[in-house]
């Protein structure tokens, strides 16, 4: 069952990226959840109680305890990964140069939005330009969720 059974979901930060301030990370993550919440009856709230959390967000490098085949690989390559429902773990490779509101580096908001797609149960899309396309395609200002992804999330939670 690759769906969440509840729609009011909570997220917990295990740690933060060394490249950004906590406020920048919180803002990017919140906006990444909101991007999907605009198209599905899902609500998200941060919690400081890890036992209450549905999603756990962490920034890691190299082998970080979820199996050698899930080890991160330094700059570029794998940028992040997330586990399908109802696991809720989303891990970001902190050897990436995560940035916000910049065309340089790797935009955390866009990567987080992609990872949350997986965490809701979406696989990769072969539609170029889709958020769930396997390859990061750079930062877009005023990003809107592409049609393919809207259909994907609405088929599951609509
Ligand atoms: C086999 C997976 C563990 C690959 C991994 C991924 O898809 N994570 O969701 C990953 O980080 N893929 C890279 C591939 C790449 N270097 O472009 C990626 O950036 N995926 C995340 C991403 C972020 C934002 C948008 C898109 N389309 C894809
Ligand atoms: Ca990497
Ligand atoms: Zn991991
Ligand atoms: Zn992916």
Could you name the key traits of this structure?
single chain, 158 residues, alpha/beta, two-stranded parallel sheet, globular, binds the ligand CC(C)C[C@H](C(=O)NO)C(=O)N[C@@H](CC(N)=O)C(=O)NCc1cccc(N)c1, binds calcium ion, binds zinc ion
How would you briefly describe this protein structure?
With 158 residues, this protein is of the alpha/beta class. 25% of the residues lie in helices and 18% in strands. Bound molecules: the ligand CC(C)C[C@H](C(=O)NO)C(=O)N[C@@H](CC(N)=O)C(=O)NCc1cccc(N)c1, calcium ion and zinc ion (2 copies).
Walk me through this protein's architecture.
- With 158 residues, this protein is of the alpha/beta class.
- The protein has helices spanning 22-37, 108-120, 147-157; strands at 8-13, 43-46, 55-60, 80-82, 89-93, 98-99, 106-107.
- Strands 2-1-3-5-4 form a 5-stranded mixed sheet, with helices on one face.
- α1 (22-37) packs across α2 (108-120).
- The longest helix is centred in the first third of the chain and has 16 residues, at 22-37.
- It is globular.
- One zinc ion binds at residues 114, 118, 124, 134.
Question: Helices, strands, pairings?
Answer:
Blueprint: E1 8-13, H1 22-37, E2 43-46, E3 55-60, E4 80-82, E5 89-93, E6 98-99, E7 106-107, H2 108-120, H3 147-157
Parallel strand pairs: 1-2, 1-3, 3-5, 6-7
Antiparallel strand pairs: 4-5
Helix pairs in contact: 1-2
The structure holds the ligand CC(C)C[C@H](C(=O)NO)C(=O)N[C@@H](CC(N)=O)C(=O)NCc1cccc(N)c1, calcium ion and zinc ion (2 copies).
Residues 72-79, 93, 95-96 line the site of calcium ion (CA).
């Amino acid at each position: 069952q690759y769906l969440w059974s509840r729609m009011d979901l909570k997220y917990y930060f295990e740690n933060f990226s060394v490249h950004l301030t906590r406020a920048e990370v919180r803002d990017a993550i919140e906006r990444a959840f909101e991007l999907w919440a605009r198209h599905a009856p899902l609500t998200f709230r941060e919690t400081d109680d890890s036992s209450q959390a549905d999603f756990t967000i962490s920034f890691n490098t190299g082998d970080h305890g979820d199996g050698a085949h899930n080890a991160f690989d330094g700059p570029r390559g794998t940028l992040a990964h997330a586990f399908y429902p109802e696991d809720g773990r989303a891990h970001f490779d902190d050897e990436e140069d995560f940035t916000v509101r910049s065309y340089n580096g790797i935009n955390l908001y866009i990567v987080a939005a992609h990872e949350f797609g997986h965490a809701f149960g979406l696989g990769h899309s072969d539609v170029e330009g889709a958020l769930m396309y396997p390859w990061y395609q750079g930062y877009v200002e005023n990003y809107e969720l592409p049609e393919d992804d809207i259909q994907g999330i609405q088929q599951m939670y609509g």
